[in-house]
Design brief:
With about 350 residues, the protein is α+β, with helices and mostly antiparallel strands. Helix content is about 25%, strand content about 25%. The strands form three sheets. Strands 1, 2, 3, 4, 5, 6, 9 and 15 form an eight-stranded mixed beta sheet that branches. A seven-stranded mixed beta sheet has the order 8-10-11-12-13-7-14. Strands 16-17 form a two-stranded antiparallel sheet. The longest helix is centred in the C-terminal third of the chain and has 16 residues. The model has no long low-confidence stretch (mean pLDDT about 90).
Length: about 350
Amino acid sequence: RLDSRVWNRTRSPEWFRWKYADNPYTDHTPVFVADYDGEIVGARPFLAMPLRIGDRSVMAFQPADTMVDPDHRRSGVFRRMTAHALSTYRNGEPALFFNFPNQHARPGYLDLGWRVVAPEVTYYRIETPSTVRSDGGLKQRTAGALQPMLRGYYAARRSLSTPPDDRPVQQVDGVPIERLAVLHSRRQPPTIHADRTEQFLRWRLASPVWERRTYLVGEQSTDDEPVAALVARSRTTDDGLRLTQVVDVAPLCGGQRWREALWSGLSTVIESHPAAALFAVSDGAIPHSVLAAFGFLPDDSLPLSRLTTFDSMLVTRPNGDPDDADAWEIAGRTVDDPDNWCVTFAERDTS
């Protein structure tokens, strides 16, 4: 009830169990609540998530789905819940906190010791602008005028790009967890990212609100193991928008063969989702040159920056004294340095 009132969405008990109760990285459900006269008026959930930092895997907690009843806002509920959580976890896990608050919630985190790392950027490819509504991040009336321009833009981008030689793309319904984990283990980026073990992937890519399909991209003429994989997920929002996201890429880094494989995989993702009104890719998942070839545009610059209603940032805080300069370095990485992070939708608080 509180989630529906605050976020104007429909979420099931199954969704809550998946996201919080069935999280394999805690022995409890990390949700703090505030009540008033016996009624819950605030909730402060956390996602437990292992992060790979250098050669280490450390536990991080991500504040997510923050809820304060509209009738009890501006009374310190958010601050007291968050401060209580920090106090509770101070002498144990996690090693750090990170999340993606918008412009309204961000000042509260900064007051409690979080630091801004970088903007949360999403790349979009709009197929049918007239169907894109506010929950897709774009204003419908203005986006509708983009359709003729976008068709020409996509055609121009494809004509200007030089596609690589065809690579075989195998489509698999769902997510082949073991194969994906093997691909991730072959090459780890030096940046901070979720530790994509089988356990992590099995939990994180199991949200009940999405349908998933995996694209395994091989060599040009061999039956060897895939060079790369893309995991696409789709759902229809409460407003009828058909949204498809590339939720993860394996591995997260590579050379020319990897970029060419992602080109072939992304092309197949788009072709195999003809009903999608909107495609989305989190910055950091796919090289910008590949995204540009298919007309994906970032929401932090023109023209999409004129349409977006969101202003979210990656922020982080060590689990310790934020005034201690040494606390901001973990496993040789400065955790508030934007060059030290790589996040996809798998790291971001998405359903």
